[in-house]
């Protein structure tokens, strides 16, 4: 065995982790830009713009092959498309009713619960608890008199996010390259566009709104989902789920830098806990056998 071949397996998780982190940064920068559109488009209008532009870009780049897939392949990618549309719609409906910090904190619970369920290593419980503590602390100051319907949307978004993780990995194992993501995004856009247009009205077609919507789509959907789909082919699902706990921390930093939102001492401690959990997850991933990934993984693009 050559030296290159002996080091390759250990390098894969690190590279996959980098893809996830880059995707999270893009996603939270895109969410900050989306705040500018909310007063004009509403939640469903934002979802329509985000998924619509993402579908256009992915179809142009991936040019997915539609023939030669089984019935189960199509059922999987359709379910993935529904999960994409539902996750985005539920998230935006939640932040339209309750604070962003509370929404993100609740939403991250979905991947965290999934990480514990999917993991085969006892140490994952420690990282999950540590990440949960950080996420809970990060929500301090955001919880007050919360709208009950907003809470329902936020917890539903958490469940949809867990479903997205599972379906993204399964779609990646059934469709080559980005074909599955492009098809699923198109399905999600088809579901979201009628509701978005009805919600936003003619304002959704204004040139400046379309331009901002395209930017949000690239940052919030196209780039992160593509990077995550690739990462899920190389990274254990439990580790990926724990890494999603970085989202509240990165969102807080994005809010501080782009929106002028304050960062408290409690927030700094929370970010430290989340980062510590993520480092632990990476170390665990480097010692986790490839068999601990989701069924039917693809080792290479």
Question: Which secondary structure elements does this structure contain, and how are they paired or packed?
Answer:
Blueprint: H1 3-34, H2 38-62, H3 71-95, H4 100-118, H5 123-138, H6 148-174, H7 179-200, H8 207-232, H9 237-243, H10 246-258, H11 265-285
Helix pairs in contact: 1-8, 1-10, 2-3, 2-7, 2-8, 3-6, 3-7, 4-5, 4-6, 4-9, 4-10, 5-11, 6-8, 9-11, 10-11
Describe what is shown at a glance.
The chain has 301 residues and is an all-alpha fold.
Q: If you average the pLDDT, what whole number results? A: 77
Q: Order of helices and strands, N to C?
A: HHHHHHHHHHH
Largest sheet: none
Structural class: mainly alpha
What's the β-strand tally? Answer: 0
Spans where pLDDT lies below 50 across 5 or more residues: 1-13, 290-301
Could you tell me how far the N terminus lies from the C terminus, measured between alpha carbons in angstroms?
Answer: 23 Å
Question: Counting H and I runs of at least 4 residues, what is the number of helices?
Answer: 11
The multimeric state of the shown protein is single chain
- Portion in helices: over 70%
Rg over alpha carbons: 19 Å
């Amino acid at each position: 065995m050559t030296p290159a071949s002996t080091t390759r397996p250990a390098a894969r998780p690190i590279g996959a982790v980098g893809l996830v982190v880059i995707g999270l940064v893009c996603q939270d920068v895109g969410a900050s830009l989306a705040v500018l559109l909310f007063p004009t488009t509403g939640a469903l209008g934002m979802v329509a713009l985000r998924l619509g532009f993402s579908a256009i870009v992915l179809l142009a780049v991936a040019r997915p092959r539609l023939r030669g897939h089984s019935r189960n392949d199509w059922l999987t990618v359709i379910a993935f498309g529904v999960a994409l549309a539902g996750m985005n719609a539920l998230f935006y409906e939640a932040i339209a009713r309750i604070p962003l910090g509370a929404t993100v904190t609740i939403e991250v619970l979905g991947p965290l619960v999934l990480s514990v369920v999917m993991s085969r290593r006892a140490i994952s419980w420690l990282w999950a608890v540590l990440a949960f503590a950080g996420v809970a602390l990060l929500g301090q100051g955001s919880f007050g008199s919360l709208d009950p319907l907003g809470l329902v949307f936020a917890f539903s978004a958490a469940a949809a996010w867990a479903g997205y993780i599972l379906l993204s990995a399964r779609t990646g194992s059934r469709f080559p390259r980005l074909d599955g993501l492009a098809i699923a995004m198109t399905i999600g856009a088809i579901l979201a566009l009628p509701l978005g247009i009805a919600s936003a009205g003619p304002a959704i077609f204004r040139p400046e709104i379309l331009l901002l919507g395209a930017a949000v789509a690239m940052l919030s959907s196209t780039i992160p989902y593509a990077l995550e789909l690739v990462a899920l082919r190389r990274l254990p699902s439990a580790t990926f789920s724990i890494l999603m706990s970085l989202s509240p921390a990165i969102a807080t930093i994005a809010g501080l830098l782009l929106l002028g939102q304050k960062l408290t001492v409690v927030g700094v401690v929370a970010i430290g806990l989340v980062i510590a959990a993520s480092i632990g997850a990476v170390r665990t991933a480097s010692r986790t056998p490839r068999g601990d990934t989701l069924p039917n993984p693809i080792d290479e693009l």
